[in-house]
Amino acid sequence: MLTVISYFGFLLVLLIFTSVLFIGLSSIQLI
């Protein structure tokens, strides 16, 4: 059960990191 929680936590962090990176690249292109 603990491995499932850590796995979903890792996916959540990866998703947040990807979205933040995508927003950063988009803002750079807008400038």
UniProtKB/TrEMBL annotation:
Its main location: plastid. GO terms for molecular function: electron transfer activity. It holds the Pfam family PetL. The chain crosses the membrane at residues 6-25. It is found in: Plastid thylakoid membrane; Plastid, Chloroplast thylakoid membrane. Keywords: Chloroplast, Electron transport, Membrane, Photosynthesis, Plastid, Thylakoid, Transmembrane, Transmembrane helix, Transport. It is a single-pass membrane protein. It comes from the Eukaryota. The 4 large subunits of the cytochrome b6-f complex are cytochrome b6, subunit IV (17 kDa polypeptide, PetD), cytochrome f and the Rieske protein, while the 4 small subunits are PetG, PetL, PetM and PetN. The complex functions as a dimer. Belongs to the PetL family. Component of the cytochrome b6-f complex, which mediates electron transfer between photosystem II (PSII) and photosystem I (PSI), cyclic electron flow around PSI, and state transitions. PetL is important for photoautotrophic growth as well as for electron transfer efficiency and stability of the cytochrome b6-f complex. This is Cytochrome b6-f complex subunit 6.
